[in-house]
Amino acid sequence: MTDQFRTVAVIGAGTIGLSWTALFAAHGLTVRVSDPRPDLAEATAEALAVFGPHLAAQGLDTDGLTDRVHLAADITEAVRDADVVQENGPERVEFKKELFARLVREAPGHALLLSSSSAIPSSVFTTEIEDAGRILIGHPFNPPHLLPLVEVAPGEHTTAEAVRCAVAFYTSVGRTPVVERQEVPGFVGNRLQNALNRQAVHLVQQGVITPEDLATVTHSLGIRYATVGPFLGGGPSGYRHIAEHIGSTMQQLDLGEPSQDPQDRERVIRAVEKAYAATPYADLAEARDRAQLAVLSTLADVRRNQKEN
Q1: Quick check: is 151 catalytic?
Q2: Mean pLDDT, each 10-residue run in order, the chain (309 residues)
Q3: CATH code that applies to domain 7-179
Q4: By Cβ atoms counted within 10 A, which residue in 11, 156, 170, 188 is the most buried?
Q5: Active-site residue among 46, 87, 98, 151?
Q6: Distance CA 307, CA 309 (A)
Protein backbone atom coordinates (compact mmCIF):
# COMPACT_ATOMS: atom_id res chain seq x y z
CA MET A 1 0.00 0.00 0.00
CA THR A 2 1.05 3.58 -0.50
CA ASP A 3 0.13 6.81 1.21
CA GLN A 4 0.85 8.74 -1.98
CA PHE A 5 -2.42 8.99 -3.88
CA ARG A 6 -1.89 10.43 -7.34
CA THR A 7 -4.17 8.56 -9.74
CA VAL A 8 -7.72 7.34 -9.15
CA ALA A 9 -9.75 5.09 -11.42
CA VAL A 10 -13.49 5.71 -11.21
CA ILE A 11 -15.41 2.69 -12.48
CA GLY A 12 -19.01 3.59 -13.22
CA ALA A 13 -20.04 7.11 -14.17
CA GLY A 14 -23.54 7.42 -12.82
CA THR A 15 -24.58 10.04 -10.28
CA ILE A 16 -22.16 8.83 -7.59
CA GLY A 17 -19.23 8.12 -9.92
CA LEU A 18 -19.36 11.53 -11.57
CA SER A 19 -19.59 13.26 -8.19
CA TRP A 20 -16.52 11.33 -6.98
CA THR A 21 -14.74 12.25 -10.24
CA ALA A 22 -15.24 15.97 -9.67
CA LEU A 23 -14.14 15.75 -6.03
CA PHE A 24 -10.98 13.77 -6.76
CA ALA A 25 -9.99 16.09 -9.61
CA ALA A 26 -10.60 19.17 -7.44
CA HIS A 27 -8.07 17.77 -4.97
CA GLY A 28 -5.44 17.61 -7.70
CA LEU A 29 -5.66 13.91 -8.49
CA THR A 30 -5.52 12.45 -11.97
CA VAL A 31 -8.84 10.69 -12.57
CA ARG A 32 -9.49 8.03 -15.19
CA VAL A 33 -13.18 7.29 -15.75
CA SER A 34 -14.57 4.08 -17.23
CA ASP A 35 -18.20 3.41 -18.13
CA PRO A 36 -19.81 1.78 -21.17
CA ARG A 37 -22.48 4.50 -21.43
CA PRO A 38 -22.40 6.02 -24.93
CA ASP A 39 -22.71 9.59 -23.63
CA LEU A 40 -19.78 9.34 -21.23
CA ALA A 41 -17.97 12.39 -22.60
CA GLU A 42 -21.06 14.59 -22.48
CA ALA A 43 -22.15 13.38 -19.03
CA THR A 44 -18.68 13.93 -17.57
CA ALA A 45 -18.35 17.42 -19.03
CA GLU A 46 -21.80 18.38 -17.74
CA ALA A 47 -21.07 17.02 -14.26
CA LEU A 48 -17.80 18.94 -13.99
CA ALA A 49 -19.54 22.13 -15.12
CA VAL A 50 -22.34 21.70 -12.55
CA PHE A 51 -20.18 20.49 -9.65
CA GLY A 52 -17.29 22.90 -10.24
CA PRO A 53 -18.98 25.86 -8.49
CA HIS A 54 -19.92 23.62 -5.54
CA LEU A 55 -16.27 22.64 -5.13
CA ALA A 56 -15.06 26.22 -5.54
CA ALA A 57 -17.50 27.25 -2.79
CA GLN A 58 -15.69 24.79 -0.52
CA GLY A 59 -12.41 26.61 -1.17
CA LEU A 60 -11.03 24.13 -3.70
CA ASP A 61 -9.08 25.20 -6.78
CA THR A 62 -11.18 24.21 -9.79
CA ASP A 63 -8.92 25.78 -12.42
CA GLY A 64 -7.93 23.06 -14.86
CA LEU A 65 -10.48 20.65 -13.39
CA THR A 66 -11.30 19.07 -16.73
CA ASP A 67 -7.62 18.66 -17.58
CA ARG A 68 -7.22 16.18 -14.73
CA VAL A 69 -10.10 13.96 -15.88
CA HIS A 70 -9.49 11.41 -18.61
CA LEU A 71 -11.97 9.04 -20.24
CA ALA A 72 -10.60 5.51 -20.41
CA ALA A 73 -11.40 3.20 -23.31
CA ASP A 74 -12.06 0.35 -20.87
CA ILE A 75 -11.45 -0.84 -17.32
CA THR A 76 -7.97 -2.11 -18.17
CA GLU A 77 -6.87 1.34 -19.28
CA ALA A 78 -8.59 3.05 -16.33
CA VAL A 79 -6.78 1.01 -13.66
CA ARG A 80 -3.43 0.64 -15.39
CA ASP A 81 -1.47 2.89 -13.01
CA ALA A 82 -4.12 3.64 -10.40
CA ASP A 83 -3.30 4.09 -6.74
CA VAL A 84 -6.99 3.88 -5.85
CA VAL A 85 -10.00 2.37 -7.62
CA GLN A 86 -13.48 3.62 -6.66
CA GLU A 87 -16.19 1.31 -8.04
CA ASN A 88 -19.73 2.64 -8.54
CA GLY A 89 -21.45 -0.13 -10.46
CA PRO A 90 -24.85 -1.79 -10.12
CA GLU A 91 -25.93 -3.24 -6.76
CA ARG A 92 -25.66 -6.81 -8.04
CA VAL A 93 -23.51 -9.41 -6.30
CA GLU A 94 -22.53 -11.26 -9.48
CA PHE A 95 -21.49 -8.04 -11.19
CA LYS A 96 -19.26 -7.07 -8.28
CA LYS A 97 -17.79 -10.59 -8.03
CA GLU A 98 -16.66 -10.49 -11.65
CA LEU A 99 -15.51 -6.88 -11.55
CA PHE A 100 -13.41 -7.14 -8.40
CA ALA A 101 -11.81 -10.39 -9.56
CA ARG A 102 -10.76 -8.45 -12.66
CA LEU A 103 -9.57 -5.46 -10.65
CA VAL A 104 -7.35 -7.69 -8.50
CA ARG A 105 -5.77 -9.05 -11.69
CA GLU A 106 -5.37 -5.79 -13.60
CA ALA A 107 -4.85 -2.99 -11.07
CA PRO A 108 -1.35 -2.43 -9.66
CA GLY A 109 -0.56 -4.54 -6.60
CA HIS A 110 -0.48 -1.50 -4.31
CA ALA A 111 -3.85 -0.12 -5.47
CA LEU A 112 -6.65 0.21 -2.95
CA LEU A 113 -9.88 -1.32 -4.30
CA LEU A 114 -12.95 0.47 -2.95
CA SER A 115 -16.64 -0.01 -3.61
CA SER A 116 -19.35 2.63 -3.24
CA SER A 117 -21.87 -0.17 -2.62
CA SER A 118 -24.79 1.15 -0.60
CA ALA A 119 -26.09 -2.20 0.65
CA ILE A 120 -23.81 -5.16 -0.15
CA PRO A 121 -20.91 -5.90 2.26
CA SER A 122 -17.66 -6.71 0.46
CA SER A 123 -17.41 -10.16 2.06
CA VAL A 124 -20.44 -11.16 -0.01
CA PHE A 125 -18.71 -10.55 -3.35
CA THR A 126 -15.11 -11.47 -2.44
CA THR A 127 -15.71 -15.09 -1.36
CA GLU A 128 -13.91 -16.49 -4.42
CA ILE A 129 -11.14 -13.89 -4.62
CA GLU A 130 -7.85 -15.04 -3.09
CA ASP A 131 -6.20 -11.61 -2.86
CA ALA A 132 -9.09 -9.77 -1.19
CA GLY A 133 -7.03 -8.00 1.46
CA ARG A 134 -7.16 -4.62 -0.30
CA ILE A 135 -10.89 -4.71 -1.08
CA LEU A 136 -13.36 -2.85 1.16
CA ILE A 137 -16.38 -0.58 1.11
CA GLY A 138 -16.10 3.20 0.88
CA HIS A 139 -19.78 4.13 0.91
CA PRO A 140 -20.57 7.82 0.44
CA PHE A 141 -23.78 9.77 0.77
CA ASN A 142 -25.13 11.44 -2.34
CA PRO A 143 -23.62 13.69 -3.54
CA PRO A 144 -20.14 12.69 -2.30
CA HIS A 145 -18.51 15.90 -3.53
CA LEU A 146 -20.63 17.73 -0.94
CA LEU A 147 -21.53 15.39 1.92
CA PRO A 148 -18.43 14.54 3.96
CA LEU A 149 -19.33 11.11 5.36
CA VAL A 150 -17.72 7.97 3.93
CA GLU A 151 -18.54 4.69 5.64
CA VAL A 152 -15.38 2.56 5.58
CA ALA A 153 -16.49 -1.04 6.01
CA PRO A 154 -13.79 -3.72 5.82
CA GLY A 155 -14.67 -7.26 4.79
CA GLU A 156 -13.62 -10.53 6.38
CA HIS A 157 -10.31 -10.57 4.50
CA THR A 158 -9.55 -6.84 4.42
CA THR A 159 -6.20 -6.05 6.01
CA ALA A 160 -5.72 -3.46 8.74
CA GLU A 161 -3.30 -1.67 6.40
CA ALA A 162 -5.98 -1.36 3.72
CA VAL A 163 -8.37 0.18 6.27
CA ARG A 164 -5.67 2.63 7.37
CA CYS A 165 -4.98 3.60 3.76
CA ALA A 166 -8.67 4.03 2.99
CA VAL A 167 -9.05 6.38 5.96
CA ALA A 168 -5.96 8.31 4.85
CA PHE A 169 -7.21 8.54 1.27
CA TYR A 170 -10.68 9.81 2.09
CA THR A 171 -9.25 12.25 4.64
CA SER A 172 -6.88 13.56 1.97
CA VAL A 173 -9.86 14.50 -0.23
CA GLY A 174 -11.68 16.30 2.56
CA ARG A 175 -14.09 13.54 3.55
CA THR A 176 -14.92 12.29 7.05
CA PRO A 177 -14.31 8.53 7.07
CA VAL A 178 -16.00 6.46 9.77
CA VAL A 179 -14.76 2.89 10.18
CA GLU A 180 -17.50 0.35 10.88
CA ARG A 181 -16.34 -2.51 13.06
CA GLN A 182 -18.81 -5.10 11.81
CA GLU A 183 -20.32 -5.71 8.40
CA VAL A 184 -24.08 -5.19 8.22
CA PRO A 185 -26.18 -5.02 5.03
CA GLY A 186 -26.95 -1.42 4.18
CA PHE A 187 -24.20 -0.22 6.53
CA VAL A 188 -25.06 2.30 9.25
CA GLY A 189 -26.21 5.41 7.40
CA ASN A 190 -28.68 3.66 5.13
CA ARG A 191 -30.10 1.62 8.00
CA LEU A 192 -30.79 4.78 9.98
CA GLN A 193 -32.20 6.49 6.89
CA ASN A 194 -34.38 3.47 6.14
CA ALA A 195 -35.78 3.36 9.68
CA LEU A 196 -36.87 7.01 9.50
CA ASN A 197 -38.20 6.61 5.96
CA ARG A 198 -40.28 3.55 6.89
CA GLN A 199 -41.94 5.44 9.74
CA ALA A 200 -42.54 8.46 7.48
CA VAL A 201 -44.22 6.26 4.84
CA HIS A 202 -46.31 4.53 7.51
CA LEU A 203 -47.53 7.86 8.91
CA VAL A 204 -48.46 9.11 5.44
CA GLN A 205 -50.30 5.88 4.68
CA GLN A 206 -52.23 6.18 7.94
CA GLY A 207 -53.26 9.74 7.11
CA VAL A 208 -51.45 11.17 10.13
CA ILE A 209 -49.48 13.61 8.02
CA THR A 210 -48.85 14.52 4.37
CA PRO A 211 -45.49 14.55 2.57
CA GLU A 212 -45.63 18.36 2.54
CA ASP A 213 -46.07 18.44 6.33
CA LEU A 214 -42.94 16.40 6.94
CA ALA A 215 -41.11 19.66 7.40
CA THR A 216 -41.30 18.15 10.88
CA VAL A 217 -37.92 16.66 9.97
CA THR A 218 -36.27 19.69 8.38
CA HIS A 219 -37.35 21.99 11.21
CA SER A 220 -36.37 19.71 14.08
CA LEU A 221 -34.55 16.40 13.70
CA GLY A 222 -32.59 17.51 10.65
CA ILE A 223 -31.18 20.53 12.46
CA ARG A 224 -30.47 18.63 15.67
CA TYR A 225 -28.83 15.66 13.98
CA ALA A 226 -26.70 17.93 11.80
CA THR A 227 -25.27 19.57 14.89
CA VAL A 228 -25.11 16.99 17.70
CA GLY A 229 -26.27 13.62 16.34
CA PRO A 230 -28.89 11.32 17.90
CA PHE A 231 -27.53 10.79 21.41
CA LEU A 232 -27.11 14.29 22.82
CA GLY A 233 -30.29 15.52 24.50
CA GLY A 234 -32.34 14.90 27.61
CA GLY A 235 -31.35 18.05 29.47
CA PRO A 236 -28.63 18.22 32.14
CA SER A 237 -28.80 14.45 32.77
CA GLY A 238 -28.21 13.76 29.11
CA TYR A 239 -28.80 10.37 27.54
CA ARG A 240 -29.28 8.75 30.97
CA HIS A 241 -32.53 10.70 31.34
CA ILE A 242 -33.67 9.66 27.85
CA ALA A 243 -32.84 5.99 28.43
CA GLU A 244 -34.27 5.69 31.94
CA HIS A 245 -37.39 7.81 31.57
CA ILE A 246 -38.40 8.63 28.00
CA GLY A 247 -36.96 5.44 26.54
CA SER A 248 -39.31 3.09 28.36
CA THR A 249 -42.34 5.12 27.23
CA MET A 250 -41.20 5.21 23.62
CA GLN A 251 -40.56 1.47 23.72
CA GLN A 252 -44.28 0.93 24.28
CA LEU A 253 -45.24 2.75 21.06
CA ASP A 254 -46.52 0.61 18.22
CA LEU A 255 -44.56 2.16 15.39
CA GLY A 256 -46.21 -0.05 12.79
CA GLU A 257 -44.82 -0.92 9.38
CA PRO A 258 -45.60 0.68 6.00
CA SER A 259 -47.90 -1.39 3.82
CA GLN A 260 -46.29 -3.01 0.78
CA ASP A 261 -49.64 -3.41 -0.95
CA PRO A 262 -49.17 -2.01 -4.50
CA GLN A 263 -52.17 0.31 -4.15
CA ASP A 264 -51.01 1.70 -0.80
CA ARG A 265 -47.50 2.17 -2.16
CA GLU A 266 -48.83 3.93 -5.25
CA ARG A 267 -50.86 6.36 -3.14
CA VAL A 268 -47.72 7.44 -1.28
CA ILE A 269 -45.73 7.76 -4.50
CA ARG A 270 -48.42 9.99 -6.01
CA ALA A 271 -48.66 12.08 -2.85
CA VAL A 272 -44.90 12.69 -2.85
CA GLU A 273 -44.89 13.45 -6.59
CA LYS A 274 -47.73 15.92 -6.07
CA ALA A 275 -45.85 17.62 -3.25
CA TYR A 276 -42.82 18.28 -5.46
CA ALA A 277 -44.33 18.27 -8.97
CA ALA A 278 -44.19 22.03 -9.40
CA THR A 279 -40.38 22.09 -9.39
CA PRO A 280 -38.19 20.20 -11.91
CA TYR A 281 -35.77 17.68 -10.39
CA ALA A 282 -32.70 19.61 -11.54
CA ASP A 283 -33.94 22.70 -9.70
CA LEU A 284 -34.74 20.67 -6.57
CA ALA A 285 -31.25 19.15 -6.63
CA GLU A 286 -29.60 22.53 -7.11
CA ALA A 287 -31.60 24.04 -4.24
CA ARG A 288 -30.72 21.04 -2.07
CA ASP A 289 -27.04 21.39 -2.82
CA ARG A 290 -27.00 25.15 -2.17
CA ALA A 291 -28.69 24.56 1.18
CA GLN A 292 -26.30 21.74 2.08
CA LEU A 293 -23.32 23.93 1.21
CA ALA A 294 -24.70 26.67 3.45
CA VAL A 295 -25.17 24.23 6.33
CA LEU A 296 -21.66 22.79 5.91
CA SER A 297 -20.13 26.27 5.72
CA THR A 298 -21.93 27.45 8.83
CA LEU A 299 -21.01 24.33 10.80
CA ALA A 300 -17.37 24.76 9.77
CA ASP A 301 -17.41 28.36 11.00
CA VAL A 302 -19.00 27.39 14.32
CA ARG A 303 -16.49 24.61 14.95
CA ARG A 304 -13.57 26.83 13.98
CA ASN A 305 -14.73 29.50 16.43
CA GLN A 306 -15.16 26.89 19.18
CA LYS A 307 -11.56 25.75 18.70
CA GLU A 308 -10.24 29.31 18.71
CA ASN A 309 -12.12 30.14 21.89
Answers
A1: yes
A2: 80 97 97 97 97 95 95 97 97 96 96 96 94 97 96 97 97 96 93 92 92 83 86 79 72 83 91 84 84 87 83
A3: 3.40.50.720
A4: 11
A5: 151
A6: 5
